[in-house]
Amino acid sequence: MEVLLTIIFFTIFWAVVAKYGPILFTKQPHDDLVRCIFLLTAVVCWLFWLCCYLAQLNPLLGPKLNGNTIRIIASSWGNPIKEG
Amino acid sequence: MGDMFRSEEMALCQMFIQPEAAYTSVSELGETGCVQFRDLNVNVNAFQRKFVTEVRRCDELERKIRYIETEIKKDGIVLPDIQDDIPRAPNPREIIDLEAHLEKTESEMIELAQNEVNMKSNYLELTELRKVLENTQGFFSDQEVLNLDSSNRAGGDNDAAAQHRGRLGFVAGVINRERVFAFERMLWRISRGNVFLKRSDLDEPLNDPATGHPIYKTVFVAFFQGEQLKNRIKKVCTGFHASLYPCPSSHNEREEMVRNVRTRLEDLKLVLSQTEDHRSRVLATVSKNLPSWSIMVKKMKAIYHTLNLFNMDVTKKCLIGECWVPTNDLPVVQKALSDGSAAVGSTIPSFLNVIDTNEQPPTFNRTNKFTRGFQNLIDAYGVASYRECNPALYTCITFPFLFAVMFGDLGHGLILVLFGAWMVLCERKLARIRNGGEIWNIFFGGRYIILLMGLFAMYTGLVYNDVFSKSMNLFGSRWFNNYNTSTVLTNPNLQLPPNSSAVGVYPFGMDPVWQLADNKIIFLNSFKMKLSIIFGVLHMVFGVCMSVVNFTHFKRYASIFLEFVPQILFLLLLFGYMVFMMFFKWFSYNARTSFQPETPGCAPSVLIMFINMMLFKNTEPPKGCNEFMFESQPQLQKAFVLIALCCIPWMLLGKPLYIKFTRKNKAHANHNGFSGNEENAGGAHGHDDEPMSEIYIHQAIHTIEYVLSTISHTASYLRLWALSLAHAQLSEVLWQMVLSLGLKMSGVGGAIGLFIIFGAWCLFTLAILVLMEGLSAFLHTLRLHWVEFMSKFYEGMGYAFQPFSFKAILDGEEEE
């Protein structure tokens, strides 16, 4: 569910950029140019994000961390190591 | 569609101008800069053209202006900068005044220079004399009692007496320092060692009167015995360009002479400085107007050059010119012509006729300051054919984006953005820099490219989660450690299991935990390779689709079916399918499932699967796994490969057979008495007179090229991954080997050490990571566009529109 929402959110975000981004530039005479630029930007940025997101969606391997790193992460990212 | 989509429509026009209005009309056209004239007198050589005398006159004026300019530069007077109000071309009548003025100034300058040289050589002689007198003091002081014969007193009647008495004579003079030794040796030889030479170097250099260069000289006195020797010595002196000066041997006389010379020198100095003053006054008054005169003359010369391209009407009543004009600019040209006629009060208007032609018009893409840089990148490969699809429009985004895939780092991107933004924001001020060097001009010309490259590099850096090789934990890492304390303490390395440690997906970009992981490269490589192929295939599919736009525009509808369809099928069925498999693999395998065939251990390699598909081969899967990702995959793959293979003969034979067929039909139609419209014969475009064998060979080359390039180009996009990996690794190495050394030091010494190390780190970051890596990523991106993208649809056989424009002429001169 969370995955779907994230994908929808970013898709809508870039769709909005593609559609309404050119409004910032309507005074320019090169109207088509601006529209094309925003459309392409939105497409490539969205796809780039999507690839990165999907690559992490179902990780097939986990990060290999060294003992120190685990302890530093535990203290600074706030998930303490379990006792035992 | 927009301005950038394809080049503008051009019209070949004929221009009829009244001779009296010709000059002003062409001047107006030069100001608008939207007309490219064609030479109608190709056979007439440059000296026989109509306005050759006027051009000569302009040349003469230019020469004068150049002369005065060098004189002004010699005096170090600064010429005013007139980039804001460039004067218009002068009236032919006004030019007479200008000519007279320049003539007067030039002759004045020449006269002044002449006088100055005379006076300066006079001055030089006097100075030398003074130096001789002063320096010989030392030679004589001990010999004064001898009352030597000085050269000036060795007159006729004294000769015999002098020889008789066997007295010593001497000559004194000045010689260039570098000649002294040769001179001395020569004297020794001619006199067999009987000349005694004394010399002393002058410390201060003297100035050459003509050139102003410093020359070092030496004062000498040569003592000798006998008249014969004296003549010989004098000859040697002339030979060595030594100047001889009279020098009395008595002390008092010398003193007297020195005093005399000094006063004369003072007088001369006064006169010289007054001349100098006068000269600089004259130059200063001229310098105010000189730049605008120079521009006026250049414009006038350009106008006459253009008029030389015109043809005279048989009745000599009007000038006829032929020119290419963008159709959109026709009203502007009309207005310029009527303005030109109005300026001279001509009653007969000039007029403009659009004429039909079969020639290929020049390619003109109207650019603005933003698109110019991108258009230049495309034009460097080849100017687009007339009305062909212009890839520059898409390059505006795809270029910075592909660059950024390789250069993805938020920090380095920020540096680029700051540099680009500075150039863009201060562009008015920076555009005035005229002598910034070639490198500066390149950077400044590409300021918008740099800015966009920086912005995209920041975005990709954010997605890669890479800031100077460090990560930001913005949304909270989704990987949690489930191991307990004793496990952590006893094991040096722990791999977090993906089934229990990963909770959710990091929403934007790479999870920061990967930056800290030892197996980061394995994970990132798999991600970035897939990314490169996905974007590469997309880019190429886009390129192939662009060819449809060209085919529809040039009405070669048959080519859509004979070229585009098999091409796109071939690309999509093989590499598009590979992209699909990548996405499918991301979805279908995961660590949380208990279904054996979908666990990470069973996930097949997409590349191996693709190779097997091409070779119709099988690989034995591990126990409990499936070889394929979904059920009917082997059948689907076989079908895809077979269809793709069918596309090859389709591409190879389709077009030649079609041409053959249409030709036969046409011949048939002609035979039946139809005079078919040959130009519009659809697919036969451009092949009308080519023999069939050549068409077959061409098509075979195209097909082989396309099939092979599909594979090699896809692989070529892997450079996106390779360069991105290299960039990330280099920046990490720099951090670990340089900056972290400084961060580990402690105390006051550590602070100073860190200060220095930080400087080194900044330097390397800028020089290697931003500049060198940036350049390399830029070149790779350029290649991806030129070769991988544009080869799919771009012809690039056109020639650029070069309008007659004063602005371009003046800018061009400055660059030289």
UniProtKB/TrEMBL annotation, chain A:
<keyword id="KW-0813">Transport</keyword>
<feature type="transmembrane region" description="Helical">
    <location>
        <begin position="37"/>
        <end position="55"/>
    </location>
</feature>
<dbReference type="InterPro" id="IPR017385">
    <property type="entry name" value="ATPase_V0-cplx_e1/e2_su_met"/>
</dbReference>
<keyword id="KW-0375">Hydrogen ion transport</keyword>
<dbReference type="GO" id="GO:0012505">
    <property type="term" value="C:endomembrane system"/>
</dbReference>
<keyword id="KW-0406">Ion transport</keyword>
<dbReference type="Pfam" id="PF05493">
    <property type="entry name" value="ATP_synt_H"/>
</dbReference>
<comment type="similarity">
    <text>Belongs to the V-ATPase e1/e2 subunit family.</text>
</comment>
<comment type="subunit">
    <text>V-ATPase is a heteromultimeric enzyme made up of two complexes: the ATP-hydrolytic V1 complex and the proton translocation V0 complex.</text>
</comment>
<dbReference type="GO" id="GO:0033181">
    <property type="term" value="C:plasma membrane proton-transporting V-type ATPase complex"/>
</dbReference>
<dbReference type="InterPro" id="IPR008389">
    <property type="entry name" value="ATPase_V0-cplx_e1/e2_su"/>
</dbReference>
<keyword id="KW-0472">Membrane</keyword>
<dbReference type="GO" id="GO:0046961">
    <property type="term" value="F:proton-transporting ATPase activity, rotational mechanism"/>
</dbReference>
<comment type="function">
    <text>Subunit of the V0 complex of vacuolar(H+)-ATPase (V-ATPase), a multisubunit enzyme composed of a peripheral complex (V1) that hydrolyzes ATP and a membrane integral complex (V0) that translocates protons. V-ATPase is responsible for acidifying and maintaining the pH of intracellular compartments and in some cell types, is targeted to the plasma membrane, where it is responsible for acidifying the extracellular environment.</text>
</comment>
<keyword id="KW-0812">Transmembrane</keyword>
<keyword id="KW-1133">Transmembrane helix</keyword>
<dbReference type="GO" id="GO:0033179">
    <property type="term" value="C:proton-transporting V-type ATPase, V0 domain"/>
</dbReference>
<protein>
    <recommendedName>
        <fullName>V-type proton ATPase subunit</fullName>
    </recommendedName>
</protein>
TrEMBL record, chain B:
<dbReference type="GO" id="GO:0000220">
    <property type="term" value="C:vacuolar proton-transporting V-type ATPase, V0 domain"/>
</dbReference>
<dbReference type="GO" id="GO:0033181">
    <property type="term" value="C:plasma membrane proton-transporting V-type ATPase complex"/>
</dbReference>
<protein>
    <recommendedName>
        <fullName>V-type proton ATPase subunit a</fullName>
    </recommendedName>
</protein>
<feature type="transmembrane region" description="Helical">
    <location>
        <begin position="751"/>
        <end position="772"/>
    </location>
</feature>
<feature type="transmembrane region" description="Helical">
    <location>
        <begin position="533"/>
        <end position="552"/>
    </location>
</feature>
<keyword id="KW-0375">Hydrogen ion transport</keyword>
<feature type="coiled-coil region">
    <location>
        <begin position="95"/>
        <end position="122"/>
    </location>
</feature>
<feature type="transmembrane region" description="Helical">
    <location>
        <begin position="564"/>
        <end position="587"/>
    </location>
</feature>
<dbReference type="GO" id="GO:0007035">
    <property type="term" value="P:vacuolar acidification"/>
</dbReference>
<dbReference type="GO" id="GO:0046961">
    <property type="term" value="F:proton-transporting ATPase activity, rotational mechanism"/>
</dbReference>
<dbReference type="InterPro" id="IPR002490">
    <property type="entry name" value="V-ATPase_116kDa_su"/>
</dbReference>
<keyword id="KW-0472">Membrane</keyword>
<feature type="transmembrane region" description="Helical">
    <location>
        <begin position="639"/>
        <end position="658"/>
    </location>
</feature>
<comment type="function">
    <text>Essential component of the vacuolar proton pump (V-ATPase), a multimeric enzyme that catalyzes the translocation of protons across the membranes. Required for assembly and activity of the V-ATPase.</text>
</comment>
<feature type="transmembrane region" description="Helical">
    <location>
        <begin position="399"/>
        <end position="425"/>
    </location>
</feature>
<keyword id="KW-1133">Transmembrane helix</keyword>
<keyword id="KW-0406">Ion transport</keyword>
<keyword id="KW-0175">Coiled coil</keyword>
<dbReference type="GO" id="GO:0051117">
    <property type="term" value="F:ATPase binding"/>
</dbReference>
<feature type="transmembrane region" description="Helical">
    <location>
        <begin position="446"/>
        <end position="464"/>
    </location>
</feature>
<keyword id="KW-0812">Transmembrane</keyword>
<dbReference type="Pfam" id="PF01496">
    <property type="entry name" value="V_ATPase_I"/>
</dbReference>
